[in-house]
Design brief:
This protein has about 70 residues and is mainly alpha-helical. It is about 60% helix and about 0% strand. It contains 3 helices and no strands. The longest helix is centred in the middle third of the chain and has 25 residues. It is flat, with a radius of gyration of 17 Å.
């Protein structure tokens, strides 16, 4: 009898293709937006313009992304 894993129990090897395909796209997009200076036009703003009080709301998102990337 073969047991199937649930979606929550995926191994890293099953998630690796997603990370491998997403990372180059993200890097190219970051380079393009930086060289063309189009960050503000696409809805982003400088990290320096975000106050410390508002930056604390980004911490949970960063923790989730870090956990997913390192899992």
């Amino acid at each position: 009898m073969v047991r199937q894993r649930s979606k929550a129990g995926k191994s890293f090897s099953e998630r690796k293709p997603v990370l491998i395909s997403f990372t180059p796209i993200a890097v190219v997009l970051i380079i393009y937006l930086t060289l063309r200076r189009k960050w503000r036009e696409t809805g982003f703003r400088s990290l320096r313009s975000i106050s410390a009080n508002h930056a604390k709301y980004c911490i949970p998102l960063l923790l989730v992304l870090d956990t997913l990337a390192l899992e």
